[in-house]
Structure prediction request, 481 residues.
Amino acid sequence: MKQCYKPITLNTNIQLDETETKIINLLNEYTDKYNQTTTTQPLTLRITGGWVRDKLLNLKSHDIDIGIDNLSGLEFVHNLKEYITIEKYENVFQNQYLIAKNPEKSKHLETCTVKLYNLDIDFVNLRSETYTESSRIPIIEKGTPLQDSFRRDATLNSMFYNLKTCKIEDFTKLGLKDLQNGLLRTPLDPLMTFKDDPLRCLRLIRFASNYGFKIDDLALNCMKLKEIKLKLNEKISKERINVEFKKILVGSNPIYGLKLINDVGFYQLFGFDDVEFALNDISFKLSTILNEFNNDITINQIELSDNEICIYYLSLILRDCGDLKVKFGKKDMYKSSIIVLENLKFPLKTSELVGLIVGNLQDMDFNDIYKLSRSELAFKYIIPYEENWKLNLLIHLTIQCLKGNDNAITQFKEFVDTIHSLQLESIYKTKLLINGNELLKIMNKKPGPWLKEINQNLFKWQLDNPTKTKQEAIEYLYNLI
Prediction:
């Protein structure tokens, strides 16, 4: 799958919304007042990074970072707060909190986040960075706009919006050009950029998949180097990798992102090295299938949360794990679950659901609606997955489509319709007609292992006889004695 970005003409005359206008007017008023009274270098404020990129693309952005050239974020916000109080601005300044990174060494560079006009704003010094071999956390010093722009992960993320001049500043001389062409390249040598902070590799892949950008060939080839993979493994925690990986999965084009991960060989870092990571072969077909899903009214109405989207793609990626279980601690666990839990650092509940889905894929059959009883359908397709039962069916549908089953969508819809007509969609919430204490009295026994089997039999009877009453359930139990 190739990137799908089409070169555009950028409108460098940034259009501000009402809230942005209020914020910038306030900051300019304060900066003018400050510059009139200061005996040091005048203060210049710039909006940095992602907001500038998105505005140039005519996209909405609420991620406003203000770069300050002479004060720390904390100093600036403290002074701004005093100004707002003196000038009697109302309903402007809300919460304030400090983000202190290694405060003993960089007190002068503290970032401060405040809420202005109900919008979170980060205030931070422009900076320069130097790195050590063992850490992606840089040694930070105050920097110039030029230095700050060249430390960024990509040229198209390195531009500033000068609050005073209302102009775009492109100190790398490549930001506007690369954004227009949808090209992701590093401001500095990509090998050194990635060695300093290997997480930038995944960030570029995320930007590529979310915006349809192309990664510069030189940067892409550097990602493939063994030393970069080693650095990524040494310097970046699995938890931090999970953050980027999840953003790729829930982004606008996860298939493209996953293919890039596969192309540069990062799949090994996620524990996919001994699993067939077959997205290269199916990426185009999967995109076609998902487009078909989007055009189907019934399927398109299925809303998935971000976590469910992750489960969907993780299950497809790990489908070849099947029902394989391995020892994990003192218990056997699905291999797919362990990969999701240990390598990708998703929550336990997410990993268990992926394992359950992948582990039972081979037993899925849309024709079961013609072969199984109401209780059998419930126990196989609804109760184990609870509210995720439809997600499980959607994953099975996708795999059937990948296998070339031309009737899969029709079968899926018939299956879902049957579940609803049998009123099974929420059956996992159903309680037994007879509770535990009542059951003990009826059976005239003490609690024990037998109780579980009786409960299962009662639940099965209840599912197959949905109109029966509690008294009829008691009669059923007497017949079991």
Remarks:
- The longest strand covers residues 93-99.
- The chain is about 50% helix and 10% strand.
- Residues 98-109 have pLDDT under 50 and may be disordered.
- Residues 436-480 form one domain.
